[in-house]
Amino acid sequence: MSLLAPDATAAMIDAQEIHGRSLWVDARHRLFENKAAVVGMFLLALIALMAIFAPLLSQYSFEYQNWNVVSCSPDWWPDTTVLCNAGGTHWFGTDSLGRDLFVRVLYGARVSLAVGLVATLVSLIIGVLYGAIAGYVGGMLDEVMMRVVDVLYSLPFIFFVIILLVIFHRNFFLLFVAIGAVEWLTMARIVRGQTLSLKHKEFIEAARAGGVGPAAIILRHVIPNLLGPVVVYVTLTIPNVILAESFLSFLGLGVQEPLTSWGVLIGDGANQMEIAPWMLIFPALFMAVTLFSFNFIGDGLRDALDPKDR
Question: Which residues have CB under 8 Å from 64's CB, separation 6+?
C-alpha cells in the first residue's frame, strides 16, 4: 500500500515527464535487435572503408605490373607449386598481368558500390515520382502510365541496357543511368499501390480541403508516408543493380580498363579458374558477402517497419 495520500500520488504522477518513442525510433530499436541486419551493416561498412582506404592497405598501386609474378597464388596458398615468392606480400595473389589482386578487388568495390548506389538513386527518383503521380491522379492517366510500365516490363531488361550502351557508346557514367533507368519499374508499382491506399486518408482529405495543390500533396504528404516500403525496396534494389553491372562487365559491355569492377574481375577469373582459381574466388567472395549483407539489411528493415509487428 502507498503511504502517500491519493492527492499527493496524483501530483507526483503529473509532475513526472512522460517520454514516448516515435515510430522511427521504435523501428531503429527493432532493427538493431536483428543480429543478421547488424552483421550485414558491419560487413558493408568494413568493405566500404577498405575500398575508400585501399591505397593505404597495400604497398602496391592499382596499375602496377610485375611480369615476374604473373598469375601467382597468395603467399599462404596451399599449392606450393604456384608460389612466386618474389618479395612483398600478395594477400590475394596476382592476376594474369602481374597486378596485385587485393588492391584490384578493393578498387573494384569502389566501382560496383558506386554503380549500385547511383543507379538505385536514379531508379528511386523516377519510380517514386512516377508511381506517386499515377496513384494519386488516378483515372485515365493512371491507366496509361501503368500500361507503359507493363510494356517496358515485357522487354528483356538486360537487352534493353545493352541497346542503350551500344547506341550511346560504353560510357562509364551512362552505365549508371542506363541501369537505373530500367530498374524503376517495380518501384513505381510499389509506390502506386501504396499511394492508392493513402490518398483517401483523413490527412490527405484535410490538405485537399485546405486548398493544397496536388503537387504539394504528393511531395509533402504522400511521398514522406511511403518512406517505409521504399527504404526496404531500395536495400533490395542495390544488389540487383550490382548483379546487373557485373553481368554487363562479364560480357565486356560494362566497365572498361583501366577501371575495374567485381564483374570484370570475375570475368577474368573465370578464364583462369583452372590454373589460378584465386582470381575468381576472392572477387566472387566479396561480391557474395555484399549481396548477402544488403539482403539481410532489407529483411531487417522490413521487419522493423512492419506495423503489424509493433
Answer: 99, 100
Question: Helix crossing, 184-198 with 172-182: angle to 10°?
Answer: 40
Is residue 237 exposed (0-12), middle (13-18) or buried (19+ Cβ within 10 Å)? Answer: buried
For residue 165, pLDDT over 90 is answered with no
- Domain housing 277: 105-309
Q: Does 305 score more than 60 pLDDT?
A: yes
Q: Which residues pair with 94 in a beta bridge?
A: 100
> Rg for the chain (alpha carbons), in Å?
26
Q: What is the DSSP letter of 72?
A: P
| Integer Cα distance of 70 and 131 in angstroms | 52
In whole angstroms, what is the distance from residue 289 CA to residue 292 CA?
Answer: 5
Percent of the chain with pLDDT over 70: 85
- Describe the chain by its helix, strand, coil percentages, rounded to 5: 70, 0, 25
Length of the chain: 310
Domain assignment present for 71? no
CA atoms of 291 and 104, how far apart (whole Å): 19
The Cα–Cα gap between 294 and 234 comes to 9
CATH number at residue 190: 1.10.3720.10
Task: Kindly report which listed range (68-72, 164-168, 222-226, 299-303) carries the lowest average pLDDT score.
Answer: 164-168
pLDDT of residue 83: 57
> In angstroms, how far is CA 204 from the centroid of its own chain?
31
73 lies in some domain: no
Strands of 85-242, DSSP E: none
Mean pLDDT of 5-10: 53
User: What's the total number of domains in the chain?
Assistant: 1
Closest CA to 46 of 121, 114, 109: 109
